[in-house]
Amino acid sequence: MVRCALLVLGGALAVVAIGMLLGWIAAPPDAFASNSQVSARISPRLIDLLAALATGTVGAFALVRSDISDTLPGVAIAISLVPPLAVTGLLLTVHRYHDAGQSALLFATNVAAIVATGTVVFLCYGVRAGAEKAALRVGRFRGRTLAAVACVLVLVAAPLTVGTLSVARDRLLAADARPVAERWAPSGTWEVASVEARNGIVVIGILGLPPQPAPSELRAALDTNGMRDADLELHLVGGRTLWCPTRTDTCTVRVGGRS
């Protein structure tokens, strides 16, 4: 068990290190803010736990059946484990530590789900009894082992529940902010390309030609429409980012994700 844990930890650190290396080589000006693959892995929810349980069940089922290819578990695990670790490494290089922690939580969710479903499937298929018949050394199995696995799932599910509620709030915030942003952008000159919310921050992308519209006016419009507690992050064409915090009419330029 110790050897397996060390192998998993070593592999995880290796993937994070490779992600950090690639981040140092090719980090974009917006600190991966517009990368859809990164954005998809920094807001883990309960649905991700359910998907991981399904992945783990399929992988464990393939391992105990001789008529199913052994490559299936490897592919399933690689798809669920490697991407969030790579995203963690990328975000660490651009100092997005909170989001890096969220992608690491997604990795932990997938690991816990794979271990839990593997345990149940192996027990149902009598893997321990088969190993004993084959004269292999089998350790003692106690009820507290299942309890420990269940506790790990509960521990993982708690922050995922919080994340699910946070995502729901962000979607409502983005829906409220979109019409405000579209009224603010000068018609025919600037276009609102995207409106979303991340952890209570309104993130708006706009495209157009100089002169740019006043970001302070958008900040004031959001305040008037009941979004006074939401910070504003404005992405302009060319990679320039403006940061307009709450309770102020001043916006600052952010470079590489920092003011």
Q: If you had to describe this structure to a student in words, what would you say it looks like?
A:
It is built from eight helices and five strands. The chain is an alpha+beta fold and 259 residues long. A five-stranded mixed sheet has the order 1-2-3-4-5, with helices on one face. Helix 1 crosses helix 4, helix 4 packs antiparallel against helix 5 and helix 7 packs across helix 8. The protein is elongated. The model has no long low-confidence stretch (mean pLDDT 86).
Report the count of strand segments: 5
Q: Provide a count of the helices.
A: 8
The end-to-end distance, rounded to whole angstroms, is 46 Å
General shape: elongated
| SSE order, one letter for each helix or strand | HHHHHHHEEHEEE
Radius of gyration: 23 Å
Q: Output the strand order for the largest sheet.
A: 1-2-3-4-5
Overall helicity: 55-70%
* Unreliable residue stretches: none
Quick one: biggest sheet? 5 strands, mixed
What class do helices, strands and sheet pairing give? alpha+beta
Whole-number average pLDDT?
A: 86
How much of the residues is beta strand, in percent? 5-15%
Spell out the blueprint of helices and strands.
Blueprint: H1 2-26, H2 36-39, H3 46-64, H4 71-93, H5 97-124, H6 127-133, H7 143-184, E1 190-198, E2 201-208, H8 215-224, E3 231-235, E4 241-244, E5 252-254
Parallel strand pairs: 2-3
Antiparallel strand pairs: 1-2, 3-4, 4-5
Helix pairs in contact: 1-4, 3-4, 3-5, 3-7, 4-5, 5-7, 7-8
